[in-house]
Amino acid sequence: MGSDPSDDRPAKTTGPLSGIRVIDFTRVVAGPLCGRLLSDQGADVIKVEPLSPDMTRAAPPLVGGFSAYFAHFNAGKRGVSVDLGDPEAAAAVMTMVEGADVLIENFRPGVLSRFGLGAQDALRHNPRLVYCSISGYGQHGEWANRRCFAPVVHGESGLLASSARLSSSEVRPEPHSHADIQAAYLASMAISSALFDRERTGKGAHLDISLAEASVYSNEFTGPELSGQTGAAYYGGSACLVLTLGDGSMATTQGNPANTFKDWLAAMGRHELKSDDRFRRHADRLNHRAEIDEIILQWALTVPDFESLHEIVDPHGLAIGLVRNLTDLAETSWAKQRGLIAEPIAGLRHARVPYRSSQHQIGASGPPPERGEHNESVFVELADKTPEQVAAMTDRGALETAPDGAS
Question: Where in this protein does the record put region Disordered (predicted)?
Fold first, then answer.
């Protein structure tokens, strides 16, 4: 790849969002994943980076010059690197916005307004634009301008406290950026809805997506907790068991075994325990959960492997799953049948978008862009610039391309 326009990736002609152009000002996780979801569905997504690149470009491991972390969130996009403080560059970007269908940004409120690219300015120039702002706490309210990343939101939104309560454990950081991912899916849905509404009304919209609100909305225990639930729940993921089998492998079970103990007794051949006073009624089983757990855990150690466990419990309606890592999952026949993994560059693998359509070929559409890789082609195509003007902007530092070997 490179900045040579002849080396540019072809325009997308398939997918439900084919013909939709997206200007993506986002960085890190929530916004970039939203942009990738649109790209995977056929949209032409232009990633606009400042001269200081998206920080995730440096996240290890690097494969073929790309961060695998960055690639997962930016697959299939085109990329430009622009100094919005340069008046000509900012005006050129606004020209791109005027011809776009969607703009995504995840700065704190007001940042893009400093460059004349805020929602009011953009919608005045392009009333059909769907302008999506993703932020920690929303575009208004007393927390609007707080610095925010997903780990902070996990604390503020009640997720960490909820997880600790449900698992009867201390509050611990959450390693996965749930709030970012949840906001990305919500933003993608909201954008698609706004595009559909635009077809009826002819008008765009300013969408306000909050990581904190997405976290609260996506927490399955929000309703119970706000309605008075306290202590550990007897249902849900925290009530499941993780079994260790004879060969040292592990399997995860469905739900609370106090709810399914009769099925476990049948699978284990322990019918005599049905008449045990500790396990007769559901309330009794909940009170003696520790004994139930120990009975199942000790029995599991006598089962040689996962295949044997599945063969034993499946006839009794019990769902189990092998605890495995992603690399192992990618090598399963199921993953290959579903086309779970894309590999746009040798050794650089990421997940395809997780749905299929009978109408379109849906999936990752290519590698991520190198920093500033498409400066010339994008500014000539979408901002009415000549190659000579692009070269002049590059010479004075308004545009930038990654040095050889760096993305």
Answer: 356-377
